[in-house]
Amino acid sequence: MIGCGAGAAICEAYRASIPSDNSHQARNTIAAGTFALGMSKLARSAPMQTKLTINGKSHNLNADTRTTLLDALRNHLGMTGTKKGCDHGQCGACTVIVNGRRINSCLTLACMHDGNEVTTIEGLGTVDDLSPLQRAFVAHDGFQCGYCTPGQICSATAMLEEIKAGWPSHVSADLNAEIALSDAEIAERMSGNLCRCAAYPNIVEAIRTVAQGGRT
């Protein structure tokens, strides 16, 4: 958000750029500025149609262009499994999977994902048919309050696919060797997801169990 001082400085710079005479250049400069301001107001006020495929189901979203993917999911589509924590991309509670990649849904606009496939916690399993990671989190007590759990599980789901694809992390000892799932490796790959209850050891164990093909 632009503060009052910064806004005044921008306006003053714009006025200074306008020639003092009534020349053709001056009229063009003013017209261009007026058009830009008008388009800015239009962009803020006009909703935009966005088509999203969420958990295999098509949705047509009609929302303000400033609507984040997180707010679109929760407030417009009623999918409240994805949580809003910090709303600044710092905690990972809002993690979802877009086209196979995990992202912080609070940091991206919904309109940027027209035609994309989005997977939320609701799409990973059901009460009667939990995903392997969901079962492992239950078996290993990988949560306490549970608020961060949807983001943790979405992140871990995509992270395991990254490992299968051979993507190294910052702590991988050898970029060309098979990835060893040490505590440090898993912790590094999940470092974008915070747990205020500090259930990290159990989260790591749950992820390792699934990665090694264990049953829960």
TrEMBL record:
Q: Which residues form the 2Fe-2S ferredoxin-type domain?
A: 48-124
Q: Under the cellular component aspect of Gene Ontology, which terms does the record hold?
A: periplasmic space
Q: Is Iron found in the keyword set? A: yes
Which keywords describe this protein according to UniProt?
A: 2Fe-2S, Iron, Iron-sulfur, Metal-binding, Oxidoreductase
Q: Does Zinc show up as a keyword for this record?
A: no
Which Pfam family, any one, appears in the UniProt record?
Answer: Fer2
Which InterPro entries does this one have?
2Fe-2S-bd, 2Fe-2S-bd_dom_sf, 2Fe-2S_ferredoxin-like_sf, 2Fe-2S_ferredoxin-type, 2Fe2S_fd_BS, Aldehyde_Oxdr_Iron-Sulfur, Beta-grasp_dom_sf
PANTHER family from the xrefs?
Answer: ALDEHYDE OXIDOREDUCTASE IRON-SULFUR-BINDING SUBUNIT PAOA (PTHR45331:SF1), OXIDOREDUCTASE, IRON-SULPHUR BINDING SUBUNIT-RELATED-RELATED (PTHR45331)
- The protein's name in its UniProt record: 2Fe-2S iron-sulfur cluster binding domain-containing protein
Organism, as annotated: Pseudotabrizicola algicola
